[in-house]
Amino acid sequence: MASTKGKKRVVFAVEAEPQSEVAVAGSFTDWEPVPLAKAKKAGEAKFQKMVYLPEGRYEYKFLINGRWSIDPACPVWAPNEFGTLNSVVEV
């Protein structure tokens, strides 16, 4: 298991239809999608993934059923090379 020393816990969460395939990808994953777990409460449509990141600025997006999406709960965005936006989190 990787050490969490000097890192902070960050939870990426998004709502989607319960049967959806949801992942997060960003500068902290080299833009490789990492699956999010479905919430355990019955009927809840939330997916989440907890990661530990060192201090820094990270850009990310959700991949929901094969479609890229910004984080609707994140108020900070940055333009990307594809002419769309990435969500930004500061740790």
Report on the architecture of this protein.
This protein is mostly beta strands and 91 residues long. The chain has a single domain, classed as Immunoglobulins (Immunoglobulin-like, Sandwich), CATH 2.60.40.10. It has no helices and nine strands. The protein has strands at 7-15, 22-26, 34-35, 37-38, 46-54, 57-64, 67-69, 77-79, 85-90. Strands 2, 3, 6, 7, 8 and 9 form a six-stranded antiparallel β-sheet that branches. It has a three-stranded antiparallel β-sheet with strand order 1-5-4, with no helix packed on it. A hairpin with a 7-residue loop joins strand 2 (22-26) and strand 3 (34-35). It is globular and about 35 Å long. The chain starts with 6 loop residues before the first strand and ends with a strand.
The span between the termini is: 21 Å
Principal-axis shape equals globular
Mean pLDDT: 92
Instruction: Please name the CATH topology.
Output: Immunoglobulin-like
Chain-wise SSE layout:
Blueprint (H helix, E strand, L loop, with lengths): L6 E9 L6 E5 L7 E2 L1 E2 L7 E9 L2 E8 L2 E3 L7 E3 L5 E6 L1
Antiparallel strand pairs: 1-5, 2-3, 2-6, 4-5, 6-7, 6-9, 8-9
Question: Which features does this protein show?
Answer:
6-stranded antiparallel beta sheet, mainly beta, about 90 residues, Immunoglobulin-like, 3-stranded antiparallel beta sheet, globular
Please summarize what this structure is.
This protein has 91 residues and is mainly beta. It has one domain: Immunoglobulins (Immunoglobulin-like), CATH 2.60.40.
